[in-house]
Each structure stands twice: as structure tokens, then as C-alpha cells.
Amino acid sequence: MRCHAYLIRSERYYDLEERLAGMLPVAPRDQVLALLGEQHILDKIELFSGEWRLLFGINDEYEPVVDGERRRARMMVAPDRLQGLASGLWRSLIRDRWKAITFGLTTLTLALPLASGLVGVVIVEEGDEWVYAPPLNEMSAIHPSVFELLEGHLRGGLSGDPVALARLASDHAASIVEFPQSKWLALLQVCQSKAPEVAAALGRRLVLPGEYGAVITTLQKIIDPQQQPSLDSWLRVHGTRGTYALYFRDSRNERAQKPVISKAS
């Protein structure tokens, strides 16, 4: 999932701080946003799936709330503590290392130094509409520099929520190949019959950069371009021009999963 960082006027933030701290771990998203009040929000900055994860990871002092079961990801930073958040993002080690995945974080990083003492920041997960989109079969190619940053989160997601994992991979993929169900099942079948090692890799869902070359070489040998035109096109254009980690999204994993949240939560 993605998050939104809301910039709130300092006077409004301090008025709400105690109630907000109590609500943040447990209240439904709509209640949190209603408490903030749309008229008091100065700016709203979208953070992609990997961005907020990295941001939360270096800001334990702000006690971020992450609840995978309810798909919640939240954090609040008071105006008088904003400098700490800004300094962490402006450290060259963080700014340069995270450059490959920063989109909304760049906007937030530029905004914070000028806002210190003037605004508070409240980060709340997006609405859950994305959860109800029809699941797809996909191959996401992730650049090694991005994979290095997100590897722990991607690996952790393999045993968790497949919908959130697919969102994380697609948010930060360099390119994606989609497969209709018939073509996805056909790909699995040809791999099982001609390249069991690739079938096993598809079953694991995550191919590491070090395994990429062998998997791509085998796919180039065994697929029928007439049967897999999208994959064949991707292999010809991208297959040998770089190295990637690959995430394979099998829609059956998501269809088999019981809903984690409901509209009423």
C-alpha cells in the first residue's frame, strides 16, 4: 500500500496532538482524517509503497504504527520535532542511497526544512480501493539498486500479504509484463515440462539478481513467441540489456486469500 503525508498547521496539530496520539494506532483511517479536518491540511504528499517503509525504518523515535493485518501504516511528527525528521532525510548517505526509489519523499524532503516549527506531519495509509482491483499475473523487473533497498521488505512479504507485496513490487519496478490467465498457466506448464528449475523460481516468486541471467537465458530458449508475445517482446528489448531482480505475481495467491480488511473497518 501507499501512504499520504499530511502537513498540518502547527496550532491545529497541537490542539489535536493528544487525541491524535490515542487514535493513530487503532482508529479507522476515515476517523483520523476527519479529526485532522480537510480545511486544516496545507499539503498532501503521496509516498509509494517502498518510500514509507524506508522512512519508517529510520524513524523509530516517532513510534510509527505498522499493522499488516489491518493494512495500516501511520506516523506523526510534531512541529517542534520536525527538524529531526528533516535532518535524517537530508543526510547525504540517505538522500543519495535512496535516490533510486524517491518520488514523494523528494517533495517531502524539500518541504520540511522551510516548515520546521510551522507544521506538523501526519502520515496515514491510503484508502483501500486498490485492494479490490482484479488481481493480475505479472512479472516485475526490479533494478538491483532498488532491490538492495527493498529486499528485506520483499522477502518478508513472501510469507505475508500477497496483495501488498504485489503493490510494493509494481510501485518500484523498472518494467512489468502482464499475463492473461491462460498465458500465465501456459508459461507455468512449459516451464514445468522443459525447465523445472525455472518453474521452481516462479513458484518462489522472487528471482535474485544473481539468478537473473540463468532464468532469462532459459526463458529465451523455451518460450514460443507466438504463445507469449508480451514476454518475448520484453526479453528481446530488456532481457540481456541489464540485470534485474524479478517478482512473479500469481493472481491465484490473491484469490485464495481471505480479505484482510473490509470497507467498514
How would you describe the overall organization of this protein?
There is one protein chain. This protein has 13 helices and nine strands. The protein has 265 residues and is of the alpha+beta class. A five-stranded antiparallel beta sheet has the order 2-1-5-4-3, sandwiched between helices. It starts with a strand and ends in a 10-residue tail after the last helix.
Major β-sheet profile: 5 strands, antiparallel
Structural class of the helix and strand makeup? alpha+beta
Widest sheet: strand order? 2-1-5-4-3
Number of helices: 13
Strand-and-helix sequence, N→C? EHHEHEEHHHEEHHEHHEHHEH
Distance between the termini: 16 Å
- Poorly predicted runs are 259-265
Percent of residues in β-strands? 15-25%
> Outline, from the CA principal axes?
elongated
Helix content: 40-55%
Calculate the mean pLDDT score and round it. 91
Number of strands: 9
Radius of gyration: 21 Å
